[in-house]
Amino acid sequence: MSSLPSRAGRRCHSPVNSLHSTIYFSPDFTRELAAIGIEDRAAAYFAGRAAAMGAVGPGVVAASFYNFNHALIARHLPMVWRTASPETVLAARLRAADATLRRLLGDEALASPELAEAAELALRATEGCTRHARPLYAAHADLPVPDQPHLAFWHAATLLREHRGDGHLTALLDAGLDPLEALVSHTATGKGMVPHWVLATRGWQESDWDAAAGRLRERGLLDAEGELTEAGTALRAGIEDRTDRLDLAPYEHLGEQGVARLTELASKFLTTAALAGGFPADLIGKG
Fold this sequence. Notes:
Elements: H1 8-21, H2 27-35, H3 41-50, H4 58-65, H5 70-74, H6 80-83, H7 86-105, H8 107-110, H9 113-126, H10 135-141, H11 149-175, H12 179-188, H13 195-201, H14 206-218, H15 230-246, H16 249-254, H17 256-275
């Protein structure tokens, strides 16, 4: 039994993770990766997120990212490492995080005691994370913590994001959802990416999407209109509940007051980032 209020960890994770993810929609990320020779957006994403694991190939990335088409990954990896080493990519990614947070939040917010407090709380939460069976988290946990508070916060947010994400993959496997079935069912909740964003970034075709939807219908998880059935809704809720349980440790470690304060601070900064255009307007929904 958790000592935290119901779903407190999930409510904290949401704004922290969203602040982290601004970098992947950022022109600063595109610019910094292009400056080291990685101009293709898909290659930049794969390299930027996987670099902490070293010069890995498409199989490792497909396994740890889960919902991308292996053929798309193999188009760019391991070839991308001939253009820039993982260490060079990590340095470029950190420069992009710095530029993105400065642009979205402003220098005054970055120098504020509130952001320093958020960094301290997020880093304290990461002390409760575990490495076993969490490859993306474990790889990032081996990286040094940046000195500047806003970058320390972004680093901690990365750790918390990947820790939860690694656990989420376990829950998806347990639910029997393959990569595209996971995406289709998530979109059907209204909380996932709209189909055109999935197809544009994950390497799948419309025929793949339709086939996955067909498999979900055969299992009684989607209806003829593409909406979740009662069984589908229950399955997705169960996945989120199991993900919450697998990701409880960092928030239990932080404690109820710390979780509430980090949620408050991260939500405030996320609102500022969103109002500054940190996310595409058509990213989330059923399409």
